Amino acid sequence: MNPFTAWIASKGLGKVCILALVLLVLFPLTFDIFRLNLVGKYLSYGFVALGLVMLWGYGGVLSLGQGVFFGLGGYAMAMFLKLEASDPVSTKIQSTPGIPDFMDWNQLTALPLWWEPFKHLPFALVAVVLVPTLLAFVIGYAMFKRRVGGVYFAIITQAVALILTVLIVGQQGYTGGINGMTDLKTLLGWDIRTDSAKYILYYLCALLLLGTILLGLWIQKSKLGTLLLAMRDKEDRVRFSGYDVAMFKVFVFCLAAALSGIGGALFTLQVGFMSPSFVGIVPSIEMVIYAAVGGRMSLIGAVYGTLLVNFGKTYFSETFPDLWLFLMAALFIGVTMAFPEGLAGLWAQKVVPWWRRKQAERQAIRAAVRRDASTPAESASTPTANRGGPSATTSLSGQRA
Question: Where are the annotated segments for Disordered (predicted)?
C-alpha cells in the first residue's frame, strides 16, 4: 500500500473516491450530453440532501421546507441571468426596453430598486448563500430559542414553503409568477446553452458536491459533530452540560439552508429557468425522501439516494407514463420498509458483512490449498529418513555384539 492509498484509508475517504470516479469519469463516459445534463440537475438536489443529513441525521431537526432555500438560491442566480438577458438591444420590441419581459407584460415601466444590485455577478453569488442563510437564521432563532422542535418545527417550515410559493405567484410583475424566470441564456456573455457549457457546469456541480461532502465529513468528525449527535440523542443532557443547544440548532439549520441555496443556483444554471414549482411543499418533501432513501446518517448515501430517486422518476415517467406515480410510491415505500436506514444501511448491514464472509472463505480456501500443497513434500522426505534410520541402527547393534 503506497502512502497516498494509506492516507485515504486512514481518513476514511475510500467511498468519496469511488463516488468521485462515478461522477467525474463513469457518467461523462456513459451518458450523452442530454442525459449528463439531467444528472447535473439531480446533483443540484444532492446539495439539499447533504444539508438534510447534517440537519436531520446529525442534528435531529426535520425540516419540510428546504425547497424554500433551494428556490431562494435559484431565484438569486436567475435574477442576474434574467437582467443580463434583458439588455436594451434584446428587449427593444418591448414597451419599456431594458427590463425583464414579465415586468413589461405587467405594465412595469422601470426596474424595481431591489433588483438593481443583481446586475452584478459578485452580489448575486453572495445572495445565493446569504439570503437563504439569513432567512434560516431568523426562523431558527425564533423557533429554537423558544424550544420549538419536532413535528411543530416541521409543520412551521411547511407553512413557510407555502407562504413563499403564494408570494412568488402573487407578485407576478416582480418574480415572473407561476411561470417563473425563463429564457436564461448567458453568464457574463458565455452561452450556457451550448454542449461545452453543459459539460463545464456539470463538472462544476460535481466538484462542488464532492467538496461539500468533505466539509460535511470534517464537521462530523470534529467536536461539533459529536455535540450534534449528543444533542440529537440527549438534548437535555447537552443543555445541562452548559452548551447553548438552540444556537447549535440554528447553526446546522443555516448550514443546510446555505447548501440548499448553492444547489438552487446550480440548478438554475444547468436547467436555464427557475419557477415556484421548486419552492413549495411537494418538492420540499421529495427532498426529504432523497435523504431518507440514501440514509439520513450518510453523506455519500444521500447522493446515491438522490440519484436513485430521480433516475427512477425519469425512467418510470418515460417508460410507464400512466403508472409512474404508483411505481415511485412503491419505490419509496419499499425502500423505507425493507431498509429503514436507507441505502447506506443496506451497504453497512448487508453488503459489507457478506463481502467479509466471502473474503474469509477465500482466505480459508487458500490456506487449505497451501497446506495440501506442502503435505506431499513432507511425506516424500519422511520415508527416506526412515530407510536410512534402520540400516544405521542395525549396523551399530552388530558392532556392539
Answer: 367-401
* Contact partners, residue 97, CB within 8 Å, separation at least 6: 88, 91
Decide if 313 contacts 64 (C-beta within 8 A). Answer: no
Residue 86 belongs to a domain: yes
Buried b (16+ CB within 10 A) or exposed e, 254-273: bbbbbbbbbbbbbbbbbbbb
Give the total number of structural domains in the chain: 1
Secondary structure (DSSP) of 83-110: HHHT-TTTTTTSSSTTS-HHHHHTT--S
At residue 12, what is the residue type? G
In a domain, 307, yes or no: no
Residue range of the domain that includes 214? 35-279
66 occurs within a structural domain: yes
pLDDT band per the 50, 70, 90 thresholds, residue 392:
very low
- Which residues are within 8 A (CB) of 365 and not within 5 positions of it... i.e. 6 or more apart? none
On whether residue 241 sits in a domain, the answer given is: yes
Per-residue model confidence as pLDDT tens digits over 20-76: 999 999 999 999 999 999 999 999 999 999 999 999 989 889 999 999 999 999 999
Output the pTM of the full model.
Answer: 0.84
At residue 191, the 3 state secondary structure works out as: strand
- Contact, 80 vs 118, CB < 8 A? yes
In angstroms, what CA-CA distances link 91 with 87, 103, 192, 239?
6, 12, 19, 58
Measured from the Cβ of residue 151, the count of other Cβ atoms closer than 10 Å reads: 9
| Predicted pLDDT at 397 | 46
- DSSP letter at 64? S
Phi and psi for 107 in degrees, rounded to 5?
65, 30
How far is residue 151's CA from residue 12's CA, in Å, rounded to a whole number? 34
Q: Distance between CA atoms of 3 and 203, rounded to whole angstroms?
A: 28
Closest CA to 282 of 154, 158, 373, 199: 158
